[in-house]
Amino acid sequence: MTYCVGLCLKDGLVFLSDTRTNAGVDQIGTFRKMTLFQKDKDRFFVLMSAGNLAITQSVKEILLQGQLINGKNLWTAKNSYEAAVLVGDAIKQVYERDHEALTKAGLDFNCNMIFGGQVKGEKPRLFNIYSAGNFIEATPETCYFQIGESKYGKPILDRVLNFSTPLNLATKCALISMDSTLKSNISVGAPLDMLVYEKDSLQASKLVTMDEENPYFAMIHRLWGEKLREAFNSIAEPSWSGANKSAAISIPAKKMGGVPINRAPKAKPKTTTRNTTKTRKPAKRAAAKKKA
Q1: Can you give the C-alpha Rg of the chain in angstroms?
Q2: 68, 193, 229, 268: which one has the fewest Cβ atoms less than 10 Å from its Cβ?
Q3: HSE of 249, CA atoms in CB hemisphere, 13 A
């Protein structure tokens, strides 16, 4: 599996990806999921991928070779949006070539990508590109994208990150997001590739591959767990009696009443009826008494 996260902020971009592709009992695959595209001081792009490895590698190779798609490639695209369209077109090209064989083999065409960067003269931009080749772009209101195992690393991003977050703080946030994912999912693993792109630099000035022995990442792994436990223990336990008003838990909700309890129906008491009907004597016996 995979976890990749990309952040689009006021001061630049942050990209972070793991390198694990499978985690079987006796086989762990490691492949790089981050690819850089740089042309002099004219443009700089980053591509991160998740999904079927054969598909994503084919898409990456089409882009690296500079194959012309509708007469254009990443080196000639006028802007980042046009470059994202070319990435989508490359996905469609691989789909046309491979989807029938994949269908016969019972496999889905599974491919998701985060693509971002900057062309000289425009702002940095970030895109989430889907298997169909279509995509959406990050905005100041939604300034990050995740692909792969996103659920474990999402809470810290939602609570901390916004468009104005400084790059160093965003770097720390992205690494905590990755550490939370590594802790909870064995299919995501180190080494990690991280790039922090400063706006208008058009180069990879802050690029690092880190493993568990990286001192900063090791410190994050240790301290994040400790601080979470400290924060957890500092929160008051629920008060059922109402003695502690700030921690009272038994106050009813305003919009809904309490949960109804379906009680067992009461058993009806047994009643005894007295038999008041007189027993009639048989006709023969009555007739014999009359003769006597």
Answers
A1: 34
A2: 268
A3: 5
Q: What is the dihedral of CA 14, 20, 23, 28, to 10 degrees?
A: -160
pLDDT tens track for 25-64: 667 788 999 999 998 889 999 999 999 999 999 999 999 9
For residue 83, which phi and psi values (nearest 5 degrees)?
Answer: -65, -40
Model's pTM, two decimal places? 0.86
Burial of residue 27, with CB atoms counted within 10 A of its CB: 0-12 exposed, 13-18 middle, 19 or more buried = exposed
Question: Of the candidates 213, 192, 206, which has an alpha carbon nearest to the alpha carbon of residue 3?
Answer: 192
- For the domain covering 3-231, report its CATH number: 3.60.20.10
State the first-to-last Cα distance of the chain, in angstroms, to the nearest integer: 110
| Structure confidence by residue, pLDDT tens digits, 217-248 | 999 999 999 999 999 999 999 999 888 888 99
CA gap 77, 200 in Å, rounded: 17
Q: Half-sphere exposure (CA, 13 Å, Cβ side) for 260?
A: 3
Residues 128, 134, 140, CA angle at the centre, nearest 5°? Answer: 40
Query: Can the peptide bond before residue 191 be classed as cis, meaning omega within 30 degrees of 0?
Result: yes
